[in-house]
Write a structure and sequence with these properties.
67% helix; mainly alpha
Length: 132
């Protein structure tokens, strides 16, 4: 029963991630990362498929293995977040505190995204461990 639940959540988050690629209000990457997680718990074939996908497989692998967000993804995320904070949030007809909280959350997300490494760290070879 647990595997079926994870599989259903995997399909659901995959669909949401694909829809998010076309709708600016719905994020793509978090849903694809969730789909990879759910597939890893339910279906090895689908997990391997998402990790080896032509368009988003490499990004998922880099995040999963090294916590890396590419420079291109960071730039796109930063642009979108700033646009929302500058253009969309101020135009909302809601209490000022909601705008302040929304902007604070978006700033936190922006900080998190920009603070992640852009490349995987290369393993250094310790000269003392080399045996000739």
């Amino acid at each position: 029963m647990k595997k079926i639940t994870f599989l259903i959540f995997g399909h659901l988050t995959l669909v949401l991630g694909i829809v998010g690629a076309f709708l600016p209000v719905l994020p793509t990457t978090p849903f694809l990362l969730l789909a990879a997680y759910f597939y890893s718990k339910s279906n090895t074939k689908l997990h391997n498929w998402i990790l080896n996908h032509k368009y988003f497989g490499e990004s998922i692998k880099q995040w999963h293995e090294h916590g890396v967000i590419s420079k291109k993804a960071k730039a796109l995320a930063a642009i979108m977040l700033i646009l929302v904070m500058v253009l969309r949030i101020p135009s909302l007809d809601v209490h000022i505190m909601i705008k302040v909280v929304a902007n604070a959350i978006l700033l936190g997300v922006l900080y998190f995204v920009l603070s992640r490494p852009s490349k995987a760290k290369q393993k250094s070879i310790n000269q003392d461990n080399l045996k000739l």
